[in-house]
């Protein structure tokens, strides 16, 4: 594969262990991510036809580089390793690879050896801003490292500083390698090791989570694009609220700032891409969001603060975020404007890495290369962010979405190189967010490079894919697959953001279900009055909160080395967990298909349960099935169809009663409504109770092997408890008045 790789996994046909490797930032390099699993020829079947390792001549289980062969856990991983590549052991299962050269340079490409007879998954940057998954069969310092392949199936390490004045002749710890049996555990362990070794980033679970993650939102971008205006925002918030799905957070996207554009002349035809030549004039809002004089009779609010207070008061918004670029705007700052010259901006023309030039062209980058960028002086960047963010706080704005973050790697010449420049800007940005806003209120965007990812100390939410393109049918499945696969790696550092979507669209349910299982922010970009409230009500509770799953949604293990977007046959499965249940989403892009689904995906995570592990409810059918551990069940999906399955462990109560909570069956992530399940009575036979705590409104369902005698909700006895004998489904209705929280007490 001739591509620059962000993350790479390899495996044989029937793997027993996983190999992992990754690039990071250490004194002379920064590291990308690599994973690989050995070929089937290194495995042998036992009497149960399960595959075990064939032991090689190497006895040590630690990573070892000897005679041109890299071995992990005693097994060959890379052959033909050149003499200038060396290994530094780290733990029993992990190590760093490095390389040296006879000459110093600002860019090196080192051959690492040959990987062959394997199945590869890579996450690579197909644009300067974004990465997507690809599968195939071949293969902290001032330098950034990335992995790439060549036509000889050799793995290569590319080091580059982004500044001809910043040179080196070696990379001591450029590629991190690790191995283990379970790919998701392996990635978590690897990122924690790298966090400790580098000290440049923090893993997701250590970060403060912004409040927007647990409520429903609306973004103005696809509703208005640059024509966003106060009245349109009010119209959109009103139509969402009147439909029973009120937005609790708002992102005012591009179009609110005070900018100028010398490349867009009034009265002349619009030239696509010229908008990227716009530059910021001041940190304040433009005339759409403030009155220009006291005598003005237009509909503009007095100022941004007046508008924000108005919509919070009238529509019950908790959070209002606004958009800005890392350098203020797409084209940076106006160099000599009255309000921006104190930041000493300098007109700079971006230069991309040769690796980026080999991939897809991007209109925004092409235009910024043409028009230039008013780059802020690194010595003034802290002042700029503090001035901008403190002003926004004075206007009652709660947070920001910061876009165009990878621009730094293209303007690093004479500024110390891309790694040090990114580190400096990221530290200034995160310091300003912490000083000015509450709840770590930032969404990062257009920053899928290791320069940005490995400097994420505080930022907790990052966009995980290219934009949502509602007008392009071909990108809908790719969007979902890209986020799911990228989350394998990205989800260990941040909460991946799946982006906005239209609820009224041919692919709306695709996107809605994906976000229900994504563990991500949930927000739409509907035009005012253009909503599918049937879909939205399966995502959003009446109080505007959402049932967010616990972790980033990722592909199931059996999907890791398939290409559900391009191969014409594979089905994408995405899994996640709630407090008491699991959830699986399946998406079918191609021909109608019937398949068998095995629930081992969630078996290790759902805890101890009886010999029959789960109940499974396909959302679109509402049926309940009891599935023994390790068994399969059939699923039929038509072209461009998707479905979501709630998975819950059956547990025994009072010896004879088997019960499994399903949750709110009217919601896509039904089990997300369940907080806890416990016995609440005794075993005398007269007071046998199961208490379920949860939140939300609608139809609560669960599996019960015995028909209940009755039920109460928040202490009030229910007149009707429905029980379906054929599949043991028990249901009760929870009113909207109980939306904030409820206790369902079932007695037997």
From TrEMBL:
It is an enzyme of class 2 (transferase). Keywords: Carbohydrate metabolism, Glycosyltransferase, Transferase. It catalyses: alpha-D-galactosyl-(1->3)-1D-myo-inositol + sucrose = raffinose + myo-inositol. SUPFAM superfamilies: (Trans)glycosidases. InterPro entries: Aldolase_TIM, GH, Glycosyl_hydrolases_36. The keyword Glycosyltransferase applies. Gene3D superfamilies: Aldolase class I. The keyword Protein transport does not apply. PANTHER family: GALACTINOL--SUCROSE GALACTOSYLTRANSFERASE, PTHR31268. Belongs to the glycosyl hydrolases 36 family. This is galactinol--sucrose galactosyltransferase. It comes from Salix koriyanagi.
